[in-house]
Amino acid sequence: MTFKEFNFKEQLQKSIDDAGFKEPSPIQQEAIPIVLSGKDMVGQAHTGTGKTAAFGLPVINMMKGQKGVEAVVIVPTRELAMQVSDELFRFGKNLNFNTATVYGGQSYSMQLRNIDRSSIIVATPGRFLDLLRGGKINIKPSYVILDEADEMLDMGFLDDIKEIFTFMPDDRQTLLFSATMPQAIKNLAKTILKEPEFVTLTKKDVTNSKIKQTFYVVDERERDDALIRLYDFKNPTKSIIFCRTKKEVDRLSTFLVSQGFMAKGLHGDMEQRQREEVIRAFKSSKLEILIATDVAARGLDVNDVSHVFNYHLPFDPESYVHRIGRTGRAGKEGVAVSIVTPHEFRMLQKIEKNIGTKLESKIVPNIDSVKEK
Predict the structure, then answer these.
(1) Does pTM surpass 0.70?
(2) Distances in Å between the alpha carbon of 149 and those of 187, 189, 252?
């Protein structure tokens, strides 16, 4: 199947061609016709499956181009807000649709000016609710999309989201996307959606078969050593190393820089400007290693990440799926390497059960084989 078969408006098809999209991904193939039919929808899909285009393309196609905001997308983090906003702008630019990004830590007046000029708002819940509560914006969007709903739930945004919907018009089309479907999300869907259609990507689509997943068993004190050795042995072009805590990110980035690597950390305590600089440097390959916490890397979309390293296994299987999904994107192959101590075997088994595949166990290469490589 190709995108041409959806019979989008000519200018939108041009944006799709410009972006180099040929064939829709599984979620796009299933979701786009439902959205075009005007029905509410719940989509279960992970980041990296092409969700933004799955809702963005049909919504932009249906937008009338009248003055005022026609569509609102609510996302958990600023990074994701910026990314989704960029992508939607790219799709809508030939139809003269602007997007406004709304998140905390940025001046109200600038955001309000942008909203005035835009047809689409991409917002994080807290700041968006502020604007609605304060009567600073009065909008009647025809389309409201909740993206990564389970993330927003984990971050404690459930009440904010419920309140946001009290400001939204009744005759809207609502779409909800979530990687997992806990009971709270099902309950939320019942209250904000009308007779929705469900689209679920099956287990086999959860982790990309093009990602080679391996793990190496070490003692706790050998982690740094093992990481450096594996890094030298595998020689990645661009990689992300995941840590559990901000403190670990800071320590590891200092350590890697002292070893001569082009590395920088990314976590929630950094200022917005710093974070944007780091992400830009990583995208433009000025940095070869990004060391990040799970929260900081949510929705980070960089196409040519060759390797993902888990310095520690994450606390839950969903985060593992999310982490390794940063590599092997856009049909390329990827490698996911986890450093594991015997204490973490139970977590490893939990992850394997969740993703339905076994990770391959390997031995950390010795110094001689690294030198030879």
Answers:
(1) no
(2) 12, 10, 31
For 278-316, what is each residue's pLDDT tens digit?
999 999 989 999 999 987 776 677 878 999 999 999 887
What whole-number distance in Å separates Cα of residue 320 and Cα of residue 9? 39
Closest of 284, 295, 340 to residue 318, by C-alpha: 295
d(CA 18, CA 12) in angstroms, rounded, equals: 10
Lowest-pLDDT range of 265-274, 337-346, 364-373: 364-373
Q: Residue 299 in 3-state DSSP?
A: coil
Q: Which residue has the tokens 């888990």?
A: 310
* Residue 366 confidence (pLDDT): 79
Give 9 or 51, the one with higher predicted confidence.
Answer: 9
Nearest to 45 by CA among 154, 186, 202: 202
Which residue segments constitute the domains of the chain, with CATH numbers given? Answer: 3-204 (3.40.50.300), 207-372 (3.40.50.300)
Please name the residue that has the structure tokens 């997308």.
73
Characterize 281-294 residue by residue with b for buried, 16 or more Cβ atoms within 10 angstroms of its Cβ, and e for exposed: ebbeeebbbbbbbb
pLDDT at res. 207? 54
Taking CB atoms within 8 Å and a gap of at least 24, the contacts of 227-232 are: 227/309, 227/311, 227/339, 228/256, 228/259, 229/364, 229/365, 229/367, 229/370, 230/309, 230/337, 230/339, 230/364, 230/365, 231/261, 231/309, 232/370, 232/373
- Please list the residues that pair with 217 across neighbouring strands: 340
DSSP 134-191: TTS-----SEEEE-SHHHHHHTT-HHHHHHHHHTS-TT-EEEEEESS--HHHHHHHHH
